[in-house]
Specification:
The structure holds two protein chains of two kinds. By secondary structure, chain A is α+β, with helices and mostly antiparallel strands. Chain A is built from five helices and eight strands. In chain A, strands 1, 2, 3, 4, 5, 6, 7 and 8 form an eight-stranded antiparallel β-sheet that branches. The longest helix of chain A is centred in the first third of the chain and has 20 residues, at 3-22. By secondary structure, chain B is an alpha/beta fold. Chain B is 31% helix and 18% strand. In chain B, strand 2 (96-99), helix 4 (112-124) and strand 3 form a beta-alpha-beta unit. The longest helix of chain B is centred in the last third of the chain and has 18 residues, at 279-296. Chain B is globular. Classes of the chains: A alpha+beta, B alpha/beta. Chain A binds chain B through residues 57, 60-66, 87, 89, 108, 110, 112-113, 125-128, 141-145, and chain B through 54, 103, 105-107, 200-203, 213, 219-220, 223, 227, 258-265.
Chain lengths: 164, 335
């Protein structure tokens, strides 16, 4: 390979890499699950479990079908605790494309849901926050309801969103 | 405690019946009148079971269970009723399984307090603690119910099919294939089914029969076409048909939409236990309860939502013969 060809190869490689990073192959910033203490009051109380689309039934049984139809690629989940009391679970569904995340989120919209500013679109209920960002769909569910639950869940949602 | 009064009232009105129960005939029987040939389902309710804050008053669960079992068996003393159930199931020296359902996660799983109440009464009926085996798919599901793993045979045992493993043999019924948990095939002489009532995104309703998906290695293979005929086929396998003797269904809390996982936005408290031997009649009754709640909340019927629980009718057909789905032939007793 001549010197000019080597230069051309290097330039093309750098341009391609830049395109990949800034377009459809955009990667997440890594682990979406905030470490304990990252979000005030919240601790991560379990290991992260990851399910490929074909194994999602092991986690959510027949509910997996709607995610598969929407193009889920993988799902990761972890438990959390707020101030040592309130327990919650965070599910991060990585879809093939943003449309899949949008489809699932909109299916869960009810008259009781309130729009919240998290990610591209967010919905809050008394005991849960669901949002989408790009091809990610995040569902955060608390097992109890109290006056502080909605605010605490929203803070955790923002913590997850920052990692996506 | 109103069990004696209710029992006498039922007897007087013909609500204590003879009919198409399970093979054991645990239910109180009379054998006369319009109820002959009907399946009996008891719904025991306690409106004060959950407080305004949504907290379960666990102290009330045992009393509710006693009321349900007294009404179902016609035996007003819990010890007598449970001795009757145990005797019909093979005797005190046999291993009795309690099949729970923890798939939905902590917020919508069989309540541990109900499991403990059943286990306590089995012991009062002479069953050794180690002969009571609480089980589900795996450790996670059992923990979701609030149960702790225990392999010590001097105490009530509790572990999942992830520990026992599954039979190598693939069994076939109709178009359905399954490998069964060794807990079902090798450990338990009889099983008390302790499911929790939920909406289900594919099958419409998950309760008595659908809970059996937790006893096979690959339940996902049985989910096609709204779990029909999967649910019916599975319950028709001899090992399930014969070993599941009675269902004590947990309808203390439920989700009327968004199931089978925990969706707190759809959580509600029926505050009930639903008891019977005819698993088809139980699911038919549970379906009605779920539809009533959906209508109250302005939701479509399960049929209109595209997921009617067709497997219930399939389970009642002549090929399966698992029970009765005709509401006119189900005697629902509310106590």
């Amino acid at each position: 390979m001549t010197r000019s060809r080597r230069w051309l190869f290097a330039v093309v490689s750098v341009v391609m890499f830049g395109l990949l990073v800034n377009t459809g192959c955009k990667k997440s910033k890594g682990d979406p699950f905030p470490a304990s203490g990252t979000v005030a009051g919240w601790e991560k109380s379990s290991d992260t479990r990851v399910f490929a689309a074909k194994d999602l039934w092991q986690y959510i049984d027949g509910d997996s079908e709607q995610y598969i139809q929407a193009g889920v690629v993988s799902t990761s989940t972890s438990d959390y605790k707020y101030q040592g009391k309130l327990e919650a679970v965070v599910d991060v569904y990585t879809m093939g494309a943003p449309d899949g995340a949008r489809t699932i989120l909109q299916k869960g919209q009810t008259k009781d849901s309130k729009s919240v500013k998290v990610g591209d679109e967010g919905l809050q209920f008394a005991q849960s926050v669901n949002f989408r960002k790009g091809r990610y769909l995040v569902r955060i569910v608390a097992y109890e309801s109290s006056a502080t639950t909605p605010e605490a869940l929203l803070a955790l949602a923002n913590g997850v969103e920052a990692n996506l | 405690m109103s069990s004696r009064r209710d029992f006498l009232k039922e007897a007087a009105t013909g609500a204590v019946i003879l009919g198409a129960q399970g093979k054991l005939g645990i239910a109180a029987l009379a054998g006369k009148g319009a109820d002959k040939g009907k399946s009996k389902v008891v719904i025991a309710r306690d409106p004060a079971l959950h407080g305004a804050d949504g907290k379960l008053d666990e102290k009330r669960v045992g009393e509710l269970l006693d009321r349900a079992i007294a009404s179902y068996t016609g035996r007003t003393k819990p010890a007598d009723a449970w001795k009757h159930i145990v005797a019909k199931g093979g005797g005190q020296d046999k291993v009795i399984g309690l099949k729970t359902n923890g798939l939905g996660g902590k917020g919508i799983s069989t309540h541990a307090v109900l499991v403990f109440a059943i286990a306590e009464r089995l012991q009062q009926a002479g069953v050794k603690p180690g002969n009571i085996l609480v089980w589900d798919r795996n450790e996670r599901d059992l923990k979701a119910c609030g149960l702790a793993i225990n392999m010590d045979p001097s105490r009530m045992r509790c572990f999942g099919s992830d520990v026992s493993g599954f039979e190598d043999q693939v069994e076939t019924f109709g178009s359905s294939k399954a490998r069964f948990s060794k807990i079902l095939t090798r450990e338990c002489a009889m099983v008390i089914n302790v499911p929790i009532l939920k909406d289900h995104s594919m099958s419409g309703v998950t309760f008595a029969m659908k809970n059996m998906y937790g006893v096979v290695e690959r339940p996902m293979d049985l989910h096609a076409t709204g779990c029909n005929p999967g649910v019916a086929d599975l319950n028709a396998f001899p090992v399930i048909r014969e070993k599941i003797k009675i269902t004590i269904g947990d309808a203390m809390s439920s989700v009327y939409e968004g199931g089978p996982m925990f969706r707190p936005e759809y959580l509600w408290y029926p505050n009930s236990l639903i008891v019977g031997e005819d698993r088809v009649a139980i699911d038919q009754t549970a379906w009605g309860i779920l539809e009533k709640k959906r209508a109250e909340m302005g939701l479509k019927t399960l049929d209109a939502a595209g997921r009617p629980p067709r497997y219930i009718a399939t389970a009642a057909d002549s090929a399966h013969g698992l029970g009765i789905n005709d509401p006119g032939r189900i005697k629902v007793v509310e106590v």
